[in-house]
Amino acid sequence: MTALPTRKLEAWRYTDLKNLAAISFVEATPTKIVAPLPDLGIPRIVFVNGTYNAALSTPPDFLSSFAKVVDESSLPLVQINAAHAHDGATIDVPANIDAGAVMLVSYANAEMPMAFHPRHRVVLGEGSKLTIIEVAIGQGVYWHNPVTDIILHEGAALSHYRLQDEGLDAFHLATIRAQVAEKAAYESFSLVIGAKLSRAEFHATLSGPNATTHLNAAQLLRGRQHADFTSVVAHKAPNCASRQTVKSVLSDHSRGVFQGRIEVARVAQKTDGYQMNQALLLSPHAEIDIKPELEIFADDVKCSHGATIGALDPEQIFYLRSRGIPEDQARAMLIRAFLTEALEPVTNEAARVFLEDTIETWWARK
Amino acid sequence: MAAVIETLETVDALAAQKYKYGFETNIAMDAFPKGLNEDIVRMISAKKDEPAWMLEWRLKAYARWRTMEEPNWARVQHPPIDYENLYYYAAPSGPAPKSLDEVDPELLKMYDKLGIPLNERAALAGVESPTVAVDAVFDSVSVATTFRETLAKSGVIFCPISEAVREHPDLVKEYLGSVIPVADNYFSALNSAVFSDGSFVYIPKGVKCPMELSTYFRINARNTGQFERTLIIAAEGASVSYLEGCTAPMRDENQLHAAVVELVALDDAKIKYSTVQNWYPGDANGKGGIYNFVTKRGACRGKNSKISWTQVETGSAITWKYPSCILQGDNSVGEFYSVALTHNYQQADTGTKMIHIGKNTSSTIISKGISAGHSNNTYRGLVKIMPGATGARNFTQCDSLLIGDECGAHTVPYIESRNMSAKVEHEATTSKIAEDQLFYCRSRGLSEEDAVGLIVNGFCKDVLKELPMEFAVEAQKLLAVSLEGSVG
Amino acid sequence: MLEIKNLSASIGDKEILRGVNLVVPDGEIHAIMGPNGAGKSTLSYVLSGREGYEVTGGSAFYNGQDLLAMEPEARAAAGVFLAFQYPVELPGVGNANFIRTALNAVRRARGEGELDAVAFLKLARTAIKNLSMPDDMLKRNVNVGFSGGEKKRNEVLQMALLQPGLAILDETDSGLDIDALKIVSEGVNALRGPKFSALIITHYQRLLDHIVPDYVHVLAAGKIIRSGGPELALELEAHGYAGLEAA
After folding, report:
1. Could you tell me the residue ranges of all domains in chain C?
2. What is the pTM of this model?
3. Which of B226, B252, C187, C242 is deepest in the core (most CB within 10 A)?
4. What is the interface pTM, i.e. ipTM, of the complex?
5. Which one of A249, A315, A318 would you mutate to disrupt binding with C, by most C Cβ within 10 Å of its Cβ?
């Protein structure tokens, strides 16, 4: 098996997998479901311990069967996935269809430490539309290492909303690669609240003119959770736009990581690239590491990034309290306001309500 | 045919004009054999009459260097450097001059040509009041340091570091390598083994240095590495402003410059360090030019201390340089103001590190990168807030400007915070000169090049205003000259 | 009734209030005037419970409750309202949500039922209309992108909805044009009644043309050095603080 990446690799300088490497995982086996699965009344594709579960699924008609893929990626986790992947969702929407919304649920129940490496593939034909609401939940010690390949043909639009709510002993290392053709749009939002250690690594390639992508995320961490959001947006055609807003709310001993790179090729004139990372540290022991990178080879571009790190503003808390709002509630209001911006592009009503409700319940989980 | 020759001549003349410091000075030189080994280190030490502890320090550094590898993380590319094919020591022959009168007139002429005042007479005769004291370093040695006596009256020590090793061993022992450990990186280890000369400055307790101090570096000899070493110490309540300028002749081969600069500021002390780096950048095809691999770091060791770096980097084929601040004392302040301009095939990978350790420490980073021609310009920086740095503040602004579509502009900031009360703000933008700005200037009668020069100077204003007056004017001209041929 | 006795407070090592004595009975409006640095804003912050001010002596009771021992939100629930000199911006927090949350927190503390969104909006729209404010005031984020005048009007809107028993207006007139000044004044005057009292902190007389106070006090160097009727404000306007301090 390909070795796990170490911190010696620049791309992994802030995320250490030695705790993962120390565990010997067994092959994932079928299991029983002991927690309710989310149901939004839309078609649902369910994987249990990494294997498709027909009984629990109400698949959409454009779901086809899994086909093993050949992959020459240099990314270590993708190589490991390629070597082990035996299942995954293959979604193929023909041209000019509004395919609505579909849920993709990964449920894990690990009695023994176990690893699974699903390989998902989403292809949208010219002018097609789809919304995917992806949820990862589970319990026990397990390693979920999904790779999702997304191909959007001309004018296609995929909205991809992800809730990573894995069990608190789990490792979640997801790689998402998106090819976005002319006038196509890949819009994603990830809400990260679960797992002991997690990383979502996005590679979005804007390969045709006027392609766009949003890679937004919110991390809400506590305890000793570690969450890494890494993205590489490659602008390879003119007039493309990319937006990234990542917000981190870090309490206790948690640690958030944001690494984002915008690459602008020589041909990609009129690129509009934007990255913003904001972190709220709620505890003296929390840590944030940020590395926003711009790599630009075209001159007629507008690229910017910004980062702010700080605690809640005492002035704002006092203002709220002076109006009669108790301190806890004031803090919660300000944190929710802080997250609002990252949630803005979530245009699908059902997804938005689902994610907002999840954030609401996060407070009560303590 | 004639027309072709004439054209070629014109181009040559233009090229020469662009880098007006490209002449060579013919002067008798002593040089050690090429290559690096323990014997060369011993010879350098012996040549400088160094005490045994200094030789030992060098040998240790040499041994460490042998075990290290050249760093490759920066966004710069160059053919491998053959460290065995370099001269590690070159100096004007004969005994070291004891006063200005003994300095070789050829050298004085050269500094005159460069516009460096090595002449104390006018000031001493009372014609003008001295504002700048200069240490001039030619290849491996310091050839003249002016106004030493004037400075000595207020207790300021300003001398070649080789002299300080002999005359002020306690100070050198205490502080040399205390900010940048010998094995901090490949080039600092190399420098520690073979450093030849550079400036030493000590400002005693409570003294505000009465004039600007300045060192002027010149690489003249062929195939010679320059390994300057500078150490500046500002004791409690002291303050100093220090300027550094650099040039080299135009040569087809690349030359190595691997300097180490250490600053130490004790309680309430202030050090302002300004650089205008104009080493030979190579020709329009990327041939020749200096490899400028420099380690600069300041330690704000005392409470309320302040270290401010200002740099205007227009020269060198490759610049690899990260003037940094370790903010250890409570309430200490670090600043980094930088303009880096690359043209033709130049490469710059430069930025800073601000390490916040003490309480209420604050840092400001303003970086302006301008890329033209086929050049690549990278800002790389680290802001690190340690758990104890309660109330720390950082503000970073790094802007890049691209001129032409064959160049690259890159921004690689690292931000790490481990204290909730710290506040860190970072902004970066990349853009090109707006057409409407250019048109507006041209409609008022400016040529396109003048318009670009004007706009670039405006873009850099926040940094240039940090330079001492004389340098600011020079730097503005330098920016305009360095951009010649970048438009149209 | 607000009763301040011998109140002293400092910021860090600096003593700002040096024994302030003041009684504001229900139904009365008192103005506090004084030169810059006299301690006017400090007094308003100490009364509303902002951190960073150390009370070094004295007391402040409102309707028999020890204000200085209470959390800021408890003071608000007890009926104390501070109109900020520099209202704070809350990006991402909708104004309607903010005011409704505040109103319900205060109502809860007073044992009153909470208002649902519909009931609140009805109430808020009426208040906005009464204050001649634009409707979108409720939709925007709290004070974000507001002009100086809009921020002050937003303070008055909150006051109108929270119905405090004691309003402290900290330089509410600063930065207001004459129309905004009138609107703000009308907002305060509309609350006037036997159960409402106010402490109006101002540098200038002009606000007092619109909100006529029952008493005027002069605060200088952390102490009230003179008290009088509305005519005292006119006298200050004519002769300045300098002459008064010399006297």
Report:
1. 2-246
2. 0.85
3. B226
4. 0.89
5. A318
